[in-house]
Amino acid sequence: MADVAKAAGVSHQTVSRVLNDHPNVRAETRSRVLEAIDLLGYRRNMVARALVTRHSRTLGVVSFDTTLYGPASTVYGIEQAARDAGYFVSIVSLRTIDRAGVRDAINYLIEQGVDGIVVVAPQRSAAAALEDLSPGIPIVAVEGGHSGQVPVVCVDQAEGARLATAHLLKLGHETVWHVRGPQDWLEAEGRVEGWHETLSTAGREIPEVLSGDWSPRSGYEAGKRLATMAGEVSAVFVANDQMSLGVLRAFTEEGVRVPEQISIVGFDDIPESEFFSPPLTTVRQDFGAVGRHSIDVLLGQLEEGAAKVLERFVVPPDLVVRGSSAPPGA
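The structure assignment produced for this chain is given below.
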């Protein structure tokens, strides 16, 4: 910085102000400092900066199974929001979620000097792991259930299921079948809850729930079973788009026409959904909003000196109507 100051003909403090985007620097002076930085190839030493400021400008993220669209998109949204806020991100991806694993991951990130941590906790076991944590560092959970131990940012899964189910009932279907996600996943539970509540409120028959594991294979197996009941099944709400793809494949093999015989609504709105055959009606989650609110809550804690503000911020979902849903017999 001393070399940059000398080359630009300014003080050390002025260089610091330029590097930190301080508003009280004249445009001409800022330009001269930036030219000197480019000329000298100056790069800030983030380790030295952290020692002086006691802030690393790095946030930790604990996640699970980032091969799945939801968790991967959530982590991407968090990373982009952190970068927009001027922070780097250090990610620990766990193969399995349990109390010991989450605790170890958080301790590892604390040892790396992160300023705060986002835990992507879509499973009940992950949410439970947060209940006994008191690390003395700001933490936000994404999904995370209703634990009162840390702030939570989540998508309203139950509302998404209500939108999907109500859409199919409004089209004229007598009831709606459901292919759910894995038992331990909070998102799957929320979608079952919204589906069940909507049918119950409408006074409709509540069919047996078919189980899946988020994979197209499990959707395919559920679709094979549903295809044998094509006479009594006219509408299906599937808990994610990958399983919906499997259901569509099974229906095609069994000669069940979508949406003429059975309508399908998925969940997530993966980029491929609009290119399914037929294009998939689905529920869209705003992962960018989840990321932004997670970082906002975390930085709010940093500003308050790591005081826990036990808020729960819920991001609303949207229904995207495409060609896979229609009135019965349409």
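Interim note for the steering committee: The chain has a mean pLDDT of 87. Residues 287-303 form the longest helix (17 residues).
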